[in-house]
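I hope you will forgive my troubling you with a question about protein structure. Could you please explain, in whatever detail you think fit, how the structure tokens follow from the sequence? Thank you for your consideration; the sequence and its tokens are set out here.
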Amino acid sequence: MFHILLLFHFSFQPEWFIANTGAVVGGCIAAGIYMTNNGEACHYITDHSKASVVVVEGNYQLKKYIGAGAKLPLIKALVVYGEAVDKAVADKCGVPVYSWDDFLQVGSSVSDDAVDQRGNVIRPGNCASLIYTSGTTGPPKAVMISHDNITWTAQNIIDHYMTLNQEDRVVSYLPLSHIAAQLIDIFCMLILGGCTYFAQPDALKGTLTVALKEVKPTFFFGVPRVWEKIQEKMVQMGREVTGILRENF
């Protein structure tokens, strides 16, 4: 097992999926950092996980790693997606900073055989992902999720909880730092060959319904608070309806 970890921030973009899946397939351990974490929390998780590569969304997140070269000696590179790298910020990080395209270009020099060799040493009980707590009651704590845990749980969801196939589609809107969102949006869809659509960053502030109307997902996963907000909206609409429509609402 290769003890190289890859960290990245919560985002509704394909780069999150690609980084996560690439890390797992390459025999690395993937972990997520909440975009709301301050620099201190980011440094703590990066150090605690012994991360060697950190992938961040935009220069705002990159600023949290200013001085990382001196504080986090295990980091080999920082990668920025979503916008062009701010060279002034990158110069203050103390480690190489790549744009997403440049990072992919570096990876293109690695042969398929080399990737296969790394994948072939992975065993079911090896750790595939670290799920960190938000750190509200102290330093963030990590939960180790193994390869067989992920694949078994995803397959179990498909086989026993819903009737799904390659024509199914979902909307990714929950924080991908949570294992629940990873299982549904990434791994179940990978197994099925289904399609994942990305909601807008402000989905939980009101635009989720817009995405749902456009995508028309075949199934929808939500935590209790999401269902409560849907219920609240329906109750509000019911109160605003008058006349015959109110009787049928």
Q: What stands out?
A: The chain has a mean pLDDT of 87.
